[in-house]
Amino acid sequence: MTVTTLSDSHLNLPLYTRGKVRDVYRAGERLLIVATDRLSAFDHVLPTPVPDKGRVLTQLSAFWFDETSGVVRNHMLTADLDEITQHVPPLRDSPREALEGRIMLVEPCERIDVECVVRGYLTGSAMDEYRRTGAVAGSALPEGLRNGDRLPEPIFTPATKASSGHDENITFHVMQELVGSDLAHALRTISVSLYNRAAAHSAGSGLILADTKFEFGVREGEIVLIDEALTPDSSRYWDGALYPGSLVAFDKQYVRDYLNRIGWNHEPPAPALPADVVASTRARYLETFQRLTGHPL
């Protein structure tokens, strides 16, 4: 397949919302998600797209939606272009090469405005919080843990879902106040189950799933997994063969590390990425996809 980079989509459909990475359109009573090749870091969209990134996000989410359908219902109807064009006739006039592999038809849901984060390893913002307080999201952890250490058991660390700027980590008690106790407990149970299922599969693929975040909605009174699932954008994957000696990232942490290395202050304008960083990022996303699914993109 010819590599086609898509920074912005312009379909003959009503635009529902345009996020940092995904463009969402109304398709009758359903929604059509287009995963572009935009890449965000530190809450800013970078000016340099990464070829094939949107395809990896869509196809890997589709893989995980299928793999975890026994744990929780998800919003995916189909990610097959031919099936989608049957349901959404206006797409028949759109360039096939621009859409192949990067679009998904989904059920609309009422979004729950809390991000459900599960951490199996201590790193990132959780490590920073642990150093300050000895706890993460209100959960006390053993003393003496180091960056990258495996936690005694996965922990649930929710965050508020911000429309712009940084998401804010919250305690489970605060989450209960926001969404109600029953829903909060159900989301925690589902999220940890999803993480455990995915972590076991990832380990068999030579990857460590350090942490991940899920988003959920409600449809017909039922909790539904929405947005994306267990992609290199929403998860931290490490090379299992090199752990614990080195935390080699197979996700967008590679880009974050580069941006910190060049001294960007995380304020606009976001810097462009050099060709070698783009190529290395693309290679990591493609390898993550192949390891987890067992076949190339």
Care to describe what's here?
The protein is an alpha+beta fold and 297 residues long. It folds into 2 domains: 15-108, Phosphorylase Kinase, domain 1 (2-Layer Sandwich); 111-264, ATP-grasp fold, B domain (D-amino Acid Aminotransferase, Chain A, domain 1, 2-Layer Sandwich). The protein has 8 helices and 18 strands. The protein has helices spanning 53-67, 81-87, 96-99, 124-133, 172-179, 181-204, 253-261, 275-293; strands at 15-18, 22-27, 30-35, 40-41, 44-45, 73-74, 76-78, 103-106, 110-111, 114-121, 135-136, 139-140, 150-156, 159-160, 168-169, 207-219, 222-226, 235-239. The strands form 4 sheets. Strands 6, 9, 10, 13, 14, 15, 16, 17 and 18 form a 9-stranded mixed beta sheet that branches. The termini are close together.
**Which structural class should the secondary elements be placed in?**
alpha+beta
Q: Rg, please?
A: 19 Å
CA-to-CA gap between the ends?
10 Å
- CATH topology grouping of the largest domain: D-amino Acid Aminotransferase, Chain A, domain 1
For the largest beta-sheet, the strand count, sense and barrel status come to: 9 strands, mixed
Low-confidence stretches: none
Helix content: 25-40%
Give me the count of strands. 18
- The number of helical runs is 8
Order of helices and strands: EEEEEHEEHHEEEHEEEEEHHEEEHH
Which percent range describes the beta-strand content?
25-35%
The coarse silhouette is globular
What is the number of domains?
A: 2
List its traits.
297 residues; 8 helices; alpha+beta; Phosphorylase Kinase, domain 1; 9-stranded mixed beta sheet
